[in-house]
Amino acid sequence: MPRSFVSGQFVQTPFGKGVVRAVRNNGRLLIEVKARALEFREQDVTAVDRPRPSRASRVSPDRSGPSSGRFPEQSQPRADPEVDLHGLTVAEALDRAERAINVALLSDACVLRLIHGRSGGRIKSALQARLQAISAVRGFRVEPRNQGVTIVEF
Question: Which residues lie across from 152 on neighbouring strands?
């Protein structure tokens, strides 16, 4: 009996509780777990009730707009279309790129530009090796007019 999951549903995964962000083909789900976007098979997750926030983590409503009533943690993160990795170590650049990819995926962005520069190539090669391992990345390429930029497509 196939289970049916919907976007926004809370689920239990092998890595902890998360939220379904996208339902994909062949019983695959994109689930946000601990600020990371991971892909699971439907049979590997179970539906759970919406978790109640602890007293310490409750936030008062954002009163910036007229009667908005929205909580800051419920707003979608804004994806920056490009991320500059100049001046970072390889580890720092990979960490910043992964965070940018997660935000781009959660905000349904189609393209992300990662600016790594042309000299040396250590960040560029490490970044491209990491991009190959991310299943949510459909493809990536070096920008033809600027060899210091990698374009990532989701």
Answer: 112, 140
Q: Which domains does the chain have, with CATH numbers?
A: 10-47 (no CATH), 77-153 (3.30.1370.110)
pTM value is 0.51
- For residue 97, give the H/E element and its range: helix 90-106
Angstrom CA distances, 98 to 1, 57, 63, 70, 114, stand at: 36, 25, 31, 27, 11
* 94-109 pLDDT per residue, tens: 999 988 888 888 888 8
pLDDT, tens only, 7-54 = 888 899 888 888 888 888 888 888 888 778 888 989 889 988 776 655
